[in-house]
Amino acid sequence: MKWGIIATWRMALDGVVEGSKLLRKEELSGNAIEKAIQCVENNPYYTSVGYGGLPNEQGEVELDAAYMDGDNLSIGAVAGIKDFENPISIAKDLSKNRFNIFLVGKGAEEYATSNGFKRKNMLTEESKRKWEERKKEVYRNNLTPYDGHDTVGMVALDTKGSMVSATSTSGLFMKKRGRVGDSPIPGSGFYVNSEIGGATATGLGEDLMKGCISYEVVRLMKEDYTPQQAAEMALYELHNNLEKKRGKAGAMSIVCMNNKGEWGVATNVKFSFVVSTSKIEPTVFIAYMEDGKTVYKEAEKEWVNLNIND
Predict the structure, then answer these.
(1) Which residues are catalytic?
(2) pTM for the structure as a whole
C-alpha cells in the first residue's frame, strides 16, 4: 500500500525518518506526523521551532502550531503559546473539539494546563545568547530585527488513504509580542483533504497569508493538476501578484502531496525539503527558482550534515 510524508526544511529529516517508520508499519498518518514534528520541536539545535526557538523582542519564545485531519477536515491550532513543549500535540488535541479549536496566548496555555500538557521553559541559553547579540546589532547598526522564519510543515498519507497536515514554529526572530504568521492559519500555512491531497507553506507569513496558498494548491490538485503543477501555479501567481501590487515578494516555499502519494514543491528562494514514501527512503532535496520554475536536486550528504538548521 502507498504511504508518504513530505516536510519543509532539512531540519525535518530526523522527524521524517521517525514518521516513516510508523507509516511503514501501517500506523495512522496523524500519529506519524505528530511524532515527526515532535522530533523537530524537541531538538534545541533547530532554532525556529519548539525548544530553543528564537524569541520575540521581549526575549520570550512564543510558539504557533496547527493540525488538520483530511478525513473530516477537523482543525486544531494554537498561537502565541509560551512555556509548553510540543505545541503540535496541543493543536492535535484541540482538533477533537467542535468549538474553541483555535486558541491563542493565555487561553491556549490555560487549555494546555487543564488537559495535562507539560510546562517547560522553552528558552535555551543558546537562544538567549543569540537574542542578546541580535539586540546589540540592531541598536549598533540600525538594522531591522527580523530574521529567521523557518516553519516546519508536513503532509502525511497513510496506507489507509487518510491524510494529515501540520505545522510548528516560533515565528520571526525578534517579532513583536503577539505576532502570528501564516503557520497556524488554515488555508494559508496548511490545508488537507484526504480525497484530494494536502499542502503546507513556509517563509514570510505576512506575504503567504495574502494568497491562502495551501488551500489554493489543494484546489488546483482537485482540478487534476499534478502536485508539482499545482505548487508552481499557486506560488508563482502569488509571487507575481505581490511584485506587481507591492513591488516585492518575500521568501515563500510550499510542499504538497496528493492522495496517490505523488508530491510537488515550489519556491522563490533556495529551499530544502524532505520526502519519504513507500518508494523513496527519507531524502533531503534542495530546490530553487529558475526561469519562473522550480528545480530541485538531491542534497549531497556533506551538505546535509553541515546544514542542520536549514
Answers:
(1) 151
(2) 0.95
